[in-house]
Amino acid sequence: MKCIVCFAFLVVNLLLRPSVSAQSVNVAINVDAATAGYRVNEDFVGFSMEQYTLSTGRWGVLGSFWKGGTNGNNRLKNLLANISNRSVIRLGGFTADDRMVWQNTTRGSSTNVRATYQDDTDKFFTFLSEIGWKGIYTINLPNNTPANAVSEATYIMNKYSAQLHSISLGNEPYLYAGVFRSTAYTPDSCLIKDYLPMYDAIKAANSAIPISGLDCGARKYYGAMNQRWNDVYTSYLNNSGSTRPLAALNVHSYGLGNNATTLSRDAAADTLLNFNNAPLTFKASLLPYVTQLAQTKKVPLRFSETSSAATGTADTTNVSHTYVSALWALNYLYELAASGVSGVNFHSSGSSVYSAIDWGASSTVASYRVAPIYYGLLAFVDGAKNGRLLTVTPTTSAKNPRASYFATSSDDGKTIKITVLNKDVTNTINAGITIPGVSIRTASYQTLLSQAGRYGYAADTYYASAQVATSGLFTKGTPTALTLPNSSSLAITVAPMSAVVITLETSSRTMYTVKSGSWNDPSIWSGNRVPNSSDILQVNHTVTVPANTNVYALRIIYSASNQLQLGSNAKLLLAL
Hints:
This protein is an alpha/beta fold. The model is unreliable at about 1-20 (pLDDT under 50). Helix content is about 25%, strand content about 30%. The chain starts with a helix and ends with a strand.
């Protein structure tokens, strides 16, 4: 194992040096460490699986939740733990509506795989309790009754409320027309005739049962029709005055949609990496619409089903399960996080070529294979999990080279991570990075790369000079140290079609406000504690110091239009 890591480490260093034939492009990057945005929480990256997984696995094991052979669950548990200690698995997909109808009894001797029994559900939620994750559980909508849905939802809530994120009703009902319903099926008829009777029945049985949905999105494009489905849905269910609360607005999106079977290989790769030209007009249409809708309705937004392509096993372009998808996933997750999305679930069950994790070829310990996209997820959680996004200028470059830049800060401000993605096929980036007002103590980096170019497979893909072990565990290699020209800047070279995650340890004790409130309320400060005389403070909101109170800071910085309001006999003491 050590030899593999050393070899990968050597490859990293060679690839980070500009090649003779490649153009070297200088890029100046500025990171604003004093003004932080959304926080990337522990449950941000999760997975989505077909509901059919409850009744049968890859090898027809009835009533099994991804058992997969000897120690199979241990490997899967480790693969999930690499991503998070407490995130979300969503069960749903087409099979939730096509096949899975609740039977309020145990399976016994039944071999009916087109039904869900109590013990099928038990195994899923037991699995979740063992790994500390929660589940979004989908109940069949078009082939079900409200009474049966109540039975299923209350069974789960009564036994597994601690493991339940939410109940979702149906999957992609905008596709029901001509399949489960007539061709005249509309958002209004869906909500009035199907969805609301089921929702209301469940809430009448137990109002505490959390419900999310509508799990709509687009596979070919995102336009007026798709928007109307989400708009009509949130007009009935929302957290802004509605009597029908919503645990989360769930939407779906695939980077290539169904187009991986129609584009050439290079065109598919270019489309996947260039968000502005994607078939779903992701940055121009889908993302801004659903984020604004969720904010208006005061509902958390979760991309409950997503991946590089929605093509099953028919990816003729050989892109969605190659290294290109790893770079895309890393960039995609940052784009979603920067827009205020609360979480993302990568659809990963079965043997679909876009799966981050699939069942594998046989029922052995080597089951649960990872695709290159999984390494993109590892790079993201290393660079962003439990951090707050910082403003980076420039945010992106469309050409010469094509690149994206992101940064996060730990809650206490002492660790800053910067991610530089070079999506250009030929040009190398020489990045000069400046972080004003920060004193850097140490700097190092890890690299996401493929030894076989952009179309390399999982066997060719590395993050942090390492790969996933047979056990499913992932252990990063030793990071490469960077020499600092001064205490507030650094420089790094990034090879074509690679990404680096830079870790900076600083001597700063910078905290900033995340909302308005009282100085003595820990929740208004990024460090989730009351400041002391060692802290440099950035006041981004209105902060009130209670009367007859002394408060302390090393120094304080005010952003525009925000202020400190001192109560009677209150004092701010600075240790300048």
